[in-house]
Design goal:
Layout: E1 5-6, E2 12-14, H1 20-38, H2 50-57, H3 72-88, H4 92-108, H5 117-122, H6 136-154, H7 158-173, H8 190-201, H9 204-216, H10 223-233, H11 264-280, H12 284-300, H13 332-349, H14 352-366, E3 384-385, H15 412-421, H16 424-427, E4 428-430, E5 434-437, E6 443-449, E7 452-460, E8 467-474, E9 478-485, E10 493-497, E11 500-502, E12 508-509, E13 512-519, E14 524-529, E15 533-536, E16 548-553, E17 556-561, H17 562-565, E18 573-575, E19 581-585, E20 592-603, E21 620-629, E22 641-642, E23 644-648
Parallel strand pairs: 5-9, 18-23
Antiparallel strand pairs: 1-4, 2-6, 3-22, 4-5, 6-7, 7-8, 8-14, 9-13, 10-11, 10-14, 12-13, 15-16, 16-17, 16-23, 17-21, 17-22, 18-20, 19-20, 20-21
Helix pairs in contact: 1-3, 1-15, 2-4, 3-6, 3-15, 6-7, 6-8, 8-9, 8-11, 9-11, 11-12, 11-13, 13-14
Length: 653
Amino acid sequence: MRKMNPVSVPQVSIKDEFWAPRQSLVRDVVVPYQWEALNDLIPGAEPSGTIANFRAAAGEREASHHGFVFQDSDLAKWLETVGFVLQAKRDEALEKLADEAIDLIGRAQQSDGYLDTYYQLQKPGEQWTNVRDDHEMYNAGHFMEAAVAYYEATGKPKVLDILCKFANHIVDVFGPGEGQKPGYCGHPEIELALVKLYRLTGNVAYLETSKFFVDERGKEPNYFDVELARRREAGKKERVDRRKMAYFQAHAPIREQQTAEGHAVRAVYLFAGATDIADEYDDASLLDAVRSLWNNTVQKRMYVTGGIGSSDSFEAFSFDYDLPNERAYAETCASIGLMNWGHRLLQIEADSKYADTMERTLYNGLLSGISLDGRSYFYVNPLEVWPVISGKRDDIPGATLRRQPWFGCACCPPNIARLIASLGKYIYSANENELYVHLYIGSQVTQDIGGRQVTVSQQTNYPWDGAVGIRIETEAPTEFTIALRLPAWCRRAQLRVNGQRIDPVLSTERGYVKINREWQKGDSIELDMEMRVELVRSHPELREAAGKVAVQRGPVVYCMEETDNGDNLRDVQLSSEASFFGKYEPNLLNGVYVLASDDGWRTEASSVTDDLYVAKRYGKVPASLRFVPYYAWANRSEGEMSVWVRERETAAN
């Protein structure tokens, strides 16, 4: 079904002023820092207990469990990040550390393959009795992904053997057969992980089990109800649970779901796994279902920053166009899941709309989740912050002024790290005759096309500049197609091949300019995309953004911070015809392109009285406004922040 495949991490070398330092930060700072966090060695950070749990399960310390039922997954995501780091560049010391962690995981594993420290320490013998709530398969899925990444990096089979043994156990326990449990995990993740494991090992049982989980979910009788009844019959105490089946995406079979519902991270993980199954089984009806869910998500339930899951209540989707700014939840993990889901659909359809959303998410709602120094993180990513509220309004979870060094529920930090470490696989895709360029990131890729080795180098100062240079090196003259994405934000572009100008519009297919020719060694492409500042307006039913604009340049969404603009940012207005001037400031926020406009307005302070309400119109005075990339907010002094700004129509007084 798919039209192309991602180029793997080892085939791509990122050499980019924006992303190469971030990958180095992950390798040199984030991975060691997170290892210390997992070992409870960071002063002042919330304890993790993750490594201690594995030592306890291995019988090497007192048998007590710390943290959440999904605590194991933090180690899994750290190990997957290490796998991607080592795929890019082997590191003997890091590899030794990871091998020691893998040895510990192996010592903690039961003889039947089962591995979950919460159940092994807290509820021995009760495994698989509450798959709705207790994340056993979620943890397993993250470890399966880690095993694949680490094996592909090192060729060492130990971690793969451990997780295949666990996967075999799950295959035996769950399914439609006699004596098997017709259940599925309350937190989807294992669906996509089993497909990865199948693609590496060729064991079709993993693929079939993933398909069973996707197809069975939401059918009647609902397995979660059946399981709950059994626990009650056994005299187990149950907490009062207000979560509806939609929270678990178990309210209906996926082919019958019309809108993205429930816990946002769970939803996009499920939809990504279902996309894999649609691809592997050439299942058109399942693909139609996930495509429809994608459209609902990005057209009606996604922030301008690429964040999803607007509600703090159960970290969930709410309803169409309900995208509050100050109360935005927009969990970092949800943005990562959205990007991964879009990446899968992109391989199947070769449509730039998926890459556009990936890019929006990458440069905004995802990157905002990590500080510039790599040592603190946002779980929640609001689009507006008013510091006065912090600690005074329980209904606004986004009133966090600083990223935190760690979380007891630390799913986001290692998730960001593994995404940045694996970024190379998102840049390019290929098939027998085509090489697609999805993201403009300075890099070099080597790929077999038409039976010959082809190396393509990309030079750019993206996202601050829309000029991209591409150079081709081939063993011999080779005919193939290079497909370059024209981003949705780009209104005008110029394209040259070996200095000869060509019209990109004449060769565009689903948002990609396709250039087919016999390429020679040293051939070059120049793509120059006009990168102008745009005022973005929302759908009129998006009430929170009514009468407001967001400032965007290229793929980067901007915001105002109090440190640049003073307080009471909601009072600020920006002309609908505002002009901007900008410059790159290398010493600000690790180097950012800053925008400024003199076409702003504020309430005239001298016209304001002490009266709470007045029957008069306050005067307005001109104001100079300064905007910085949203992803970089909260890296300076604490203060207000806002993405959306009130629009002042040109004809207004």
